Every structure is written in C-alpha cells, then in structure tokens.
C-alpha cells in the first residue's frame, strides 16, 4: 500500500478485528509461490536497481533487511531476499539473480565488491 498503513490501522478502518486480518494475511502468504518467475528479456541494455529497506520484527532490537532487484524499465522484481545487512545476504540475493542473467556478473562484481 502506498499509504503504508499498519495492519492494525487497516483493521480499524475496515471494521474487522486485528486477529482476523492477521490470519487472512497469513493464509494469503501461504499461497504465494516461493520462486519468483522472471519473464524473458530481449537482448540489449538492461538496467537493474538494487534496493534495500529495513524493518523491525517484534522489537526494535531485531532488524530485518529486505533486499530486492528491480528491472528499471518494467518495474518487475527479479530477485528478493530477507535477512541481515551482511555479505552473506548479498550473496544469497546474488544467487537468485545469477540464474536469470549470468552475463552481468563482472559488472555487478566490480560495483558491489562483495560477491
């Protein structure tokens, strides 16, 4: 949601209980495929944005980073990883990416310096 309303806020606005809404979201999450399907790309220039966000889980002492790779032209998410902000997490994100575009390895290697 663009407004970034919390689940509790959505429950209040829609008039449903917070626990019902949480169960609904959890059931939807189970149905989401774990493997991201990437469409075939035409040959040529391909620009990828690497983005990271962080959020707290349960308390402010537990930070979770959301890493994602986005095709700038189509805005398609081509890779995603939840974890910390370590080299290991960057490598896991990279592992998702290499299966679809192995030719980009040398460019990103120089850019990131961590893979």
Structure, described:
With 115 residues, the chain is an alpha+beta fold. The chain has 2 domains: 1-32; 48-112. The chain contains 4 helices and 3 strands. The chain is globular. The model has no long low-confidence stretch (mean pLDDT 76).
Labels describing this entry:
single chain, alpha+beta, 115 residues, 26% strand, 3 strands, three-stranded antiparallel beta sheet
What is the H/E order?
Answer: HHEEEHH
Beta-strand portion reads: 25-35%
What is the terminal separation in angstroms?
33 Å
Q: Based on Cα principal axes, name the global outline.
A: globular
> Number of helix segments?
4
Main beta sheet: strand number and arrangement? 3 strands, antiparallel
Structural class: alpha+beta
User: How much helical structure, as a percent, in the residues?
Assistant: 25-40%
Gyration radius from CA atoms, angstroms: 17 Å
Q: Kindly report the spatial arrangement of strands forming the biggest sheet.
A: 1-2-3
Average of pLDDT: 76
Number of strand segments:
3
Low-confidence spans: pLDDT under 50, at least 5 residues? Answer: none
Domain count, please report it: 2
């Amino acid at each position: 949601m663009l407004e970034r309303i919390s689940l509790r806020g959505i429950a209040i606005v829609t008039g449903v209980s917070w626990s019902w809404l949480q169960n609904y979201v959890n059931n939807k999450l189970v149905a989401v495929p774990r493997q991201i399907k990437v469409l075939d790309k035409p040959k040529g220039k391909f620009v990828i944005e690497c983005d990271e966000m962080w959020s707290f889980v349960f308390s402010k002492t537990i930070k979770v980073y959301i890493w994602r790779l986005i095709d700038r032209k189509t805005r398609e998410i081509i890779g995603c990883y939840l974890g910390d902000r370590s080299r290991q997490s960057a490598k896991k994100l990279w592992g998702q990416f290499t299966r679809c575009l192995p030719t980009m390895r040398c460019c990103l290697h120089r850019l990131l310096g961590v893979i």
